[in-house]
Write a structure and sequence with these properties.
The chain is α/β, with parallel strands linked by helices and 262 residues long. Helices cover 43% and strands 14% of the residues. Helix 1 links the parallel strand 1 and strand 2. Helix 1 crosses helix 8 and helix 3 packs parallel to helix 4. The longest helix is centred in the middle third of the chain and has 28 residues. The protein is globular. It starts with 8 loop residues before the first strand and ends in a 15-residue tail after the last strand. 46% of the residues are buried.
Length: 262
């Protein structure tokens, strides 16, 4: 594989989840050094660090609560000192819990938005401020969801957070374009990994039902999400900004209920 990202430094939040791990490895395979964060112990990151190093790339792991803006700034600063200024910024950390609107309490509503929306803002702001100050180009790729535009009544807080993330990406894209910083979103549908897999595992048969309503008849793998993130980080991809790369197998053609014959 061509090292198209050689000389770049990527940062990935939620780096120890299924999708996060795939993104970290894809960035390293393409030549970038990678700083990643999560809430898990350092020992849990050792294997992934070794994988990155086996690709002759540098890696750094930190435990970071992305809902804490001071902690996020300190992390980005530490990555810069260790690996160099982050040029590929991938806010990926997210949480989700099935709670319908009438059952949502203020505490959980705030918790989910503080991670899924606020945390992404803190990370993107801290890293792009450094790029602007140093007059460097870069890429921001938010890991969003088709839930940003399709109602899911069992996860309303998640939908709202991802909808906000999409508008954040567009507003940032408009402001940062003159600085050579392109901002986009990857929006997966049903991924058989990460948060979606957690939800499907809670109810027997949900995974197969989900697969059946996807028009192409297949779930998304974490590695496939990582490939699309890498596509938006490709230096030859010079004209996409403020865009949503929707990869939902056609789900959005029909809405949450999937294909209909009537």
């Amino acid at each position: 594989m061509t090292a198209m990202l050689e000389g770049e430094v990527a940062i990935v939040s939620g780096g120890l989840g299924d999708i996060g791990r795939a993104i970290v490895l894809e960035m390293a395979k393409r030549g970038a050094d990678v700083g990643f964060c999560d809430l898990r112990d350092d020992a849990d990151a050792a294997g992934l660090i070794k994988q990155v190093q086996s690709l002759n790339r540098k890696a750094r792991y930190d435990r970071v609560d992305v809902s804490d803006h001071k902690a996020v700034w300190a992390w980005v600063d530490a990555v810069e000192k260790d690996l160099g200024t982050p040029t590929l910024i991938i806010p990926n950390a997210a949480i989700v819990k099935m709670i319908r609107f009438n059952d949502l309490d203020v505490e959980y509503w705030r918790k989910e938005l503080s991670v899924n929306l606020d945390g992404s803002f803190y990370m993107a702001r801290a890293a792009t401020q450094k790029l602007v100050a140093e007059d460097k180009p870069g890429r921001v790729v938010f890991v969003g969801s088709w839930a940003a535009h399709a109602v899911h009544i069992h996860i309303p807080a998640y939908c709202v957070g991802k909808a906000g993330l999409r508008m954040l990406a567009q507003c940032m894209a408009a402001e940062l374009a003159p600085n050579g910083i392109l901002v986009n979103e990857v929006a997966p549908g049903f991924v058989d990994a990460g948060l979606t897999a957690q939800l499907m595992n809670e109810v027997p048969g949900r995974r197969e039902k989900a697969r059946q309503i996807v028009p192409i008849g297949a779930m998304i793998e974490a590695d496939e999400v990582a490939l699309q993130v890498a596509h938006l980080c490709d230096p030859n991809n010079r004209h996409m900004t403020g865009s949503t790369l929707l990869m939902d197998g056609g789900l959005s053609l029909f809405g949450p209920g999937g294909m209909r014959s009537e």
